[in-house]
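Schema walk-through. Below, the input block comes first and the output block second. Nothing else is stored per chain. Lengths vary across the set, and this one has 505 residues.
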Amino acid sequence: MRMTDAERIPVIIGGGEVNDRPEDPDAGLDSLGLMVAALREAEKDCRTGPLLAEIDSLAIVDQISFRALGNLCAPLAAAIGADPKVKYQSDAPHGDTPIRLLNEAANRIGAGEIRLAAIVGGEALRTAAGRAAKRAAGEDKSYNAVRKVATRQEPNYAQSHGLIAPVDVYPLYENAGRAAYGQSLAEAQAESAAIWSAMSEVAAQNPAAWIRDPVTAQAMLSPANGNRPIAFPYSKLMVANASVNQGAAFIVTSLAEARRRKVREDRIIYVGMGAAAKEAGSILKRDRYDRSVSMDMAIQRTMALNEVTVDELDFVELYSCFPCVPKMARRTLGWGLDFPLSVVGGLTFGGGPIANYMSHAVVRMMHRLRDYGLHGFLFANGGFATDNHCIILSNMPIEAAHFPQDFDYQGEADRVRGPVPPLDEGYVGPAVIETYTVFYGRDGQPRDGVVVARTPAGARTLAHVDAGDADLIAFLTDGRVEPVGTAGTIGEDSGGRRCWASGGQ
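--- output ---
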């Protein structure tokens, strides 16, 4: 059913981005300041004169860099001179949040509840870290807000085996995926390097990107220039860059309101329908690690809802915190490596860390679609490969799109999900590697690792990898044999710690 009422057709009319690079962190903007600046840039981009004071909906992406600021709805609204009837901040800083907030704004416009919405987020982690270092009076004191936030959810069992922050967890998907795709370690690393190098090229052409220096695929795989290993098989250049100060915002309204405000037709971007689904919050309660049923559902449903085929997509943004995510997404979508997987440049180079990256992606996609092409696909992911939300944007009306819509496809995802294995935390005996990773210290040397294993009874369990076992470390990391699917034994060391001993060494 085609929507014909212009009052209820959601469109984007403007977007703005800001980078803040002060030499003195005390002079830097905090998260609130970044959001105000991004909204002002979005207002300018609308080319309609002042409109922020008129918004009747303000949605904020939660931030972690200045937690003491609390809920920012009231101070942000006051800073832009607005009094919106709808104002809220997301419950948590998850990477899918901007797309969910966009879908919610589109629904409210489609229902006739609002006419002018602003969506905004900002993170000042670089400023926060700099200020913390100054207060430490020169001491070598780390500031890892990402890891601090990550520890609040996962059960102690996983934490005790080093599975705490996203950088610890995503390698489990990378290694399981490589085995499922039938790739060698060299082939999988070459794919990661090709994707990340292409993203660096995109970032180099993006005036709002944080790092605009292209990196070759060869350099992605080299340990030179500080590209130390982080968690196998990822090095520093393959993980999200949180040390940035960035904000992004965009304005959503109805087609009728855009025309009343005399927005040029070639600057109007139409919002398509979205779809969302999630995995279990605990990484140990997932059915598998070589793919995500929830990701598949969100991608496939979004394409079907909008009646768009992959051949009709001109641009995509496949969330890129770590290579395994766009690898999984592109296979589900059917997107090859001949074209970039990002319009921003990815979380390593483009920036936009924690939860607000996809706000930058919406703004960049808006700009690209204004220039040429027809359809852009946005895939967002948050948590530990947990939350998935996709949407399509276009520079022409999407005939199949109608609002409001129910974008929640959790039920469908759960119905096709495989069985979740029970957890056996104290298991000792023979087992098979389901997936694994090795963690590295700042000196580039292995410090320990973890094996996710399956028992003969089909239960899932964890086992430590002893960094002192050189043969085991080599077996897991040198690529001569695929460790996933190989048999070994979980035994207890002298301290009672359950450790993996591979039968395939």
